[in-house]
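Researcher: Re-running this chain for the archive, since the previous output was lost when a drive failed. Same request as before.
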Amino acid sequence: MNSRTLGDLAWPRVALFLAFLVTLVLGSRPVRAQCLGDCDGDGTVSINELITAVNIALGSRSIEDCRNADGDGDGSIGINELVRAVNNAAGGCDIVAPTPTSSATATPSATATPTGPTPTPTEPLPPQVTLFALAAADDSLVLPTVVEDGVPVYELPFGRFFRIIVEARPGASLIPPGRDTFRPSGAPPFQIQANRPLGNGSAAVCDGDDPLPGGVPAIDPPSFESTEMVEDALNDFGCRFPNGAPSPSPAGRGCNAQEACLRFEDGTFGCESANATVQYCSRVISEVEEFPEGDTLLSVRILETEVNGRDTLVSPIEQIIVRITPPFPG
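Model: Regenerated structure tokens:
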């Protein structure tokens, strides 16, 4: 992927830095449903929504992905609107109620007519990935360093000592995302892959533990086609995402404090996305799955839980880049 120029990245860096300050100082706070930046209308402006707004401002995502970040309705997102969204994430915003008009003097007003096309759902929406990020070894959320071509980039000095975090929610069908990260045959509902080998790139499935631990093979270019090679690689990577205590078996976790692996500043655990229902947490990346120097593209998608009599819907593919830049080259 081609990197943007310093000028292109200047104000996205500002927005992400402001978002970082919000997370560092105040954490995630609930806001009103109409707050600028609340993309999904769930009453919370999250770091993930701020990143979505930045991507829209860069032109790498559609304004339809977060209409609620467009404060003046001009079809674009400016730096002033990003700053307001960050402020809303930090302290919330007050929605001013209309002043009641006396019935004796009230003048009937024309009913506002909605503009633009009215969406008519014809198919249930698939599950959605609400967060794809990294967490530090202490389980705190890590923010991307830059966004390049719409893909968040995480720049790290070492290829280990961090977790991979994915969160998801149901689509309009209300069928929950599948929790299996491994299946003995076929691909699991949780599907994650790397375009470069991790560790020694061993092709053996679920060989991450002793006596002969192995890494994860690459899929390059990224592909989710139904082949034995792809399915084995998805299962092998998925084995590195264990369920919460007390079960160490591969599976997604709940967002409750007992299962989730993402730690907030107050010491509690949960999901970063307020509307997420499942969290997938890798174990802390060790030398077994160590990321190589340079850029590694991670791609993830999630299938909803299988229901007899209907096709299983699949989330859009989300991607991040893990960029390893050693502090002491050579």
